[in-house]
Amino acid sequence: MVQTALDMLAGALGWLAGLAVPLLGLLGAGLLALLLVGLLDRDRFRAGIGWAAARGPQVGRWALVALALGAGALAVEVTRRAVDLRLGAQLSARYANAADPAGGQTVQSAPRVSLLSSRTYSRSVALPADVYTRLNLGGGWEALLPYFGNPPSLTVQDLREGFTRRGETLLYTRDVTLQTEEPLGLDTTRARADLRFVGAAGGAASQAGNTYRATFRADYTFTNPRREAATARFLFPLPQGSGTLSGFRLTVNGRAYRASDLSQGSLWEGRVGAGQTVRVSVTYTHQGSRGWSYRLSDRREPLRSLDLTVTADRPARFERYSLYPTRLTRAVFGGPQTLRWQLQDVITAQNVAVVFAQSSVRELLAKAGLMQPPALVLAALLALGWALRRRLPLPPPRLAGALLGLALGFVLGGVLTAYLPPVAALPLGSLVGVGFGALALGRAFLPPLVVAALVPLAFLAAPHAGLLLTLLAAATLLALLRAGRARAV
Fold first, then answer.
1. Half-sphere exposure of 291 toward its Cβ, with a 13 Å CA cutoff?
2. I need a labelling partner for 163 at 20 to 30 A (CA). Which of 30, 157, 284, 290 fits?
C-alpha cells in the first residue's frame, strides 16, 4: 500500500508540475499588465503597490490556509485510491494469506419423500417361421435380443427374457420387475436457519462484508398411509452454494444415520409400518454470502404444515415474487431480525428467498473517502462561522495546522483499514484528526471539527447515511444559532 501511495503521490505532483508552466505564463502576463499600468498612470500604480504591500502578509496567511487545504485534500485522495487498489488486488489475488470462506448464495431445497413398491411387466412378441428362416440364424436366437432394447437399469430389480418355439412360431418373452416411487407429502416441517455475519475474503478484518456463518436445523414428519408396511425413501438434498458443511447429522426416529454416498443428497430407506409416523431431524453448519433460500417449488405437492424461521443480525430483503414472511420482527434502524413463514395446507410455486443487500467494504470505503476532501472544506468554513458567531480569534496559521491535522487523521483511518474493520479504523482516524485540530485551534473549536469529522463516518451506516447527514446538518445549524444568541446576550 505504501508503494502504491508513493506512486500515486508522484503522479499527482507530476500533474501539478505540468500546471506550473501555464501558471507561470499567467503570472508573467499579470506582471506585464502591471508594468503597463505603471507607465500609463504612475500615481494609481504607486497606490496599488502600497495597498498590496499593506495587505500582503494577511493575504499570505490565508494563502497558507488554502495551501494546507489543498495538501490535505491531495493526501486523503491519494490514500483513498491506494486503499481502493489494495482491496481490488485482494479480491483478484490468486493467493491469500488466510482462509477464504468457500460459500456463496445458499439454496436449500425441501426434502422429498416417497413410498417404494415393485411391479412386474411382461411382454411377448411372436415371430413367424418365415422371418426366422429369412434371418438364417441357424439356431442363434439370442442374437435378436439387442434389437428389443433395454429397460432403464436404475429401477430394474429383476429381468428375465428369452425365446421359445411353439410349433412354427418363435416367441420372445420378457418379464421386468421395476421399482416405482409414489410421492408422499410431509406432514410437518419445522426448520430454522440462524445467520451470523463474519469476516469475508482474505481473512482480513477490513474485509467484513456479506459473508455469514449459518446453522440449519429442521424436523420433518411423514406417515405411511397404506394398510400394510411399505418401504419409504427420504431424500434430503445438500444445499447448493454452501461450500463446506460441518456437523452434518441426519437422525431418523432418534437414531443417527450416516450415508456413504452424498452425491445426490442424504438418502434414507427403511420399512415403515402401516400408519406409522417417521420423524427425521437434520442439522448442519456452513458458510454462505449475500442470500439464503429454501426451495419449495421443486415438487408441486401440498404443504400441510410449514414453520420456517430465519434469524439474521443484518437487515434482509426479499427476491421479487418470493414468499413474504407471515411474521417479521426487526429493529427500527436495522440490526438483528427474525423472519417467520407459517403455511398450512397450501400448494405454492414460490420459494423463500432472503437477500442481504449491503454495500461491499470497497464501496463503503470509497464513499467515505470521497467525502473527506469536502469535509476538510466544511471544517474550514465551520471554523470561520464559529469564530464569527462567538467572536473568537482565528489565526490563519493555526487554521492551516488544524486542517492538516484533520487530514492526517483521515489518512491514518485509511491506513488502519488494512488492520482493523472499517467501523473501527475510520472513527479512530477521525478521532486522532480531531485531536490534532483541537491542539492547533484550542478546545473552543471542537464542535466544528467534530461535525466535519462525522460527515465521512455517516457512510459507515450506508442505508441511513442521508438521514444521519440531515440530522447532523440540523444540529450544526442549531448550534450556530445558539452561539450567535449567546453572544448577543
1. 16
2. 157
Question: 265 and 161, same structural domain?
Answer: no
What is the b/e burial string over 249-283, where b = at least 16 CB atoms within 10 angstroms of the residue's CB?
Answer: ebebeeeeeeeeeeeebbbbeeebeeeeebebbbe
- The lowest-confidence range among 46-50, 264-268, 449-453 is 46-50
* Cell output for 212: 455469514
Whether 282 contacts 249, CB under 8 Å: yes
Taking the C-alpha atoms of residue 298 and residue 311, their distance in angstroms, rounded to an integer, is 24
What does the pLDDT average to over 378-399?
Answer: 89
Residue with cell 491514518: 412
Residues 84 and 157 grouped into a single domain:
no
Tell me the per-residue pLDDT of 463-489, one tens digit each, with 9 for 90 and over: 778 888 899 888 888 887 876 655 544
Same domain for 139 and 172, yes or no, is yes
Query: Residues 46, 29: one domain?
Result: yes
Q: Whole-prediction pTM value?
A: 0.63
**What number of H helices and E strands is found in the chain?**
8, 17
Distance (Å, rounded) from C-alpha 139 to C-alpha 126?
A: 16
231 grid coordinates: 418401504
Proportion of the chain in helix, strand, coil states, percent, rounded to 5: 45, 30, 25
210 and 174 part of one domain: no
Q: Give DSSP secondary structure letters for 168-194.
A: TEEEEEEEEEEEEEEE---SEEEEEEE
Domain count, the chain: 3
DSSP, res 343: E
- How far apart, in whole angstroms, are the C-alpha atoms of residue 352 and residue 322? 6
Per-residue pLDDT tens digits for 241-267 = 877 888 899 999 989 887 666 767 788
Angle made by CA atoms 218, 220, 223, in degrees to the nearest 5: 175
CA-nearest of 67, 77, 69 to 12 is 77
Q: Please state, in angstroms and rounded to a whole number, the distance separating the CA atoms of residues 99 and 95.
A: 10
Other Cβ atoms less than 10 A from the Cβ of 236: the count is 24
User: Do 214 and 304 have their domain in common?
Assistant: yes
Boundary residue ending a domain (162, 183, 204): 183
Q: Work out the end-to-end distance of the chain between its first and last CA atoms, rounded to an integer number of angstroms.
A: 53
Give residue 161's domain range: 115-183
Q: Where is the domain boundary, 310, 328, 355?
A: 355
Specify the amino acid at residue 299. Answer: R
pLDDT digits (tens, 9 = 90+) for 136-158: 555 555 666 666 666 655 567 67
Beta bridge partners of 287: 213
Residue 207 has pLDDT above 50, yes or no: no
Question: What is the grid cell recorded at 431?
Answer: 478521532
Q: What is the CATH number of the domain that holds 337?
A: 2.60.40.3680
Same domain, 198 and 154: no
Question: For residue range 55-102, what is the model confidence (pLDDT) as tens digits?
Answer: 556 667 788 888 888 888 888 988 898 888 888 777 776 666 655 556
Residue 348 and residue 382 in one domain: no
